[in-house]
Amino acid sequence: MAENYGQQIIAPGNQISLLCGEINKNSYRNSKAVEIFDDTPGFRGVVGYRWSEPVLQAMMRRKMMITQQNDGAGHKPAFCTLLGMNGNPDFFRTLSHEFFAMTADDAVAGGGFPVLFTNQIDLSGVNKNNLHQVKLAVGGMADVLTRNSWVGFTGETAIMPYAITAFCLDGSPNEVALTWTGNCTALMHVDTALAGREITAGMPIVVFPQDGFRCNGATLFLRILLKVFGKEGLNESDVLKLVEQLAVPSTIFAPIITKVLGWQPDGTVADPLADMRAVANVTGGGPFDRVSEMLPPRIGAVLDNMPDPSAVMKEFQTLSQGHDGLSISDHDGYSYLTGGAGMVAVCATASDADRLIQEAALHGVQDARIAGETVNSEDGEIKIKSRFGLQTDQWLSSLDEAA
Length: 403
Known about the structure:
Layout (H helix, E strand, L loop, with lengths): L1 H26 L6 E6 L6 E6 L1 H8 L3 E9 L4 H9 L11 H13 L3 E11 L7 H18 L2 E9 L18 E12 L14 E6 L8 H12 L7 H10 L7 H8 L14 E6 L5 H8 L4 E5 L7 H10 L9 H6 L5 E7 L2 H13 L6 E8 L5 E4 L9 E3 L6
Parallel strand pairs: 4-5, 9-12
Antiparallel strand pairs: 1-2, 3-6, 4-6, 7-10, 7-11, 8-10, 9-11, 12-13
Helix pairs in contact: 1-5, 3-7, 8-12
C-alpha cells in the first residue's frame, strides 16, 4: 500500500516539482529589479532575493514599498481537461495566463510593478498518458515569465485525487484535472500609486477588450453546458468547439500599464507616458462593480462605446434562456461577466487616453477604445449601452438589480 502511495502520489508530484523548479531557476535573471540568491546544489537548498540597489535606495527614502496579490484560474482549467480528454491538449499551453493575468493585472491596477511570482498546482493525478498535458501547462508558465521579464521564485505541486476533480471526468487514462493559483510580489512607488482620488467628471474611460470570457463566469458556463447538453453530450464536436472558445486565455495587460506609468526594467520610475487616474482589472465581477470601485464618491460613468462581448458569451446567453437560475440577461453580462472588457482605465484627458490606446496597440491589443467618460452622480451610477443580444443598444444601470 505504501509503495503504491509513493508511485501514485509522491513520485509524480516530485516529477512536476522538479520541472517547475528548473523553470524557476531559468527565470532568476529575467528581472533587473531583483537579485536571486540561489544556494541549491540539488533540489533542496536556500533561495532568497534582494532588491536592486536603486530599489533599495528608494525604499530607504520611503518612496518605494512592496505589494502582493493572490488569485487563480478558478474553474477554467476544467475546459482544458475536457479538451485534453478529446485529443486537443494545446490549450494547456496557455493555462498559466490565468493566474498571471489575475495577479499581475491586479497589482498594476494599483500602480504596481510585478516582479516575483509563486504558484501552486494541485492535480487529480499524473501518469504516462496525461503527463504531456501537464508539461504543456508548466512550459507555458516559462513562456510568460520570459516574455515579461518576470521571475518565478518558487512553487508547490501536489497530487490530490480525492480533492481535485472536474465536471467531465469519466475515468479516461489521459484525463487530468487541476487547480492553479498564484501570488505576485510587486513594487509600488508613491509616484505611480493609482487610488482614483483625483478623478472628476468629464474624464475619458479607456476599455481594453477581452476575447473569450477572461476568468469571470466559468462556473455558470459549466452549469449551462451540463443543463443543455448533459454529461453524455460533452464530447460531441459542436460542444467541444464551444469549449475551445471558453478555453481562450486571459490577456495579460500588465506590461501595457507599467510602461505607461513610467516603470523601468530595473524597478525605477521615469516620467509617465500618459496621465492615468485609475485602473481596474475586470475579474471577480463585471464592469458595473469594477468601474464603480475605482471611482471616488459622487462620480459615476457613462459607457456608450463598449466593445462587443465575445461570441462565446453571446452564445451562452442564448443557450441559457429558459433555464431557471441560469438565464443570462444583458444586465447580468455587465454585472457578473466581463461584458467584453478585460481592463478599464480612467485618463485625465483625451490625449492621455489616445497615448494609452497607442501603447496598447504596440503590445498587440488592437481594439482598445474610449468607451465613455466619468460624470457627476450622487449615487455613483454606472450606465452602459448594452452590446449583448437581448437589449442591444439599450441603456442599463448599475442601480438596477440584475434580472
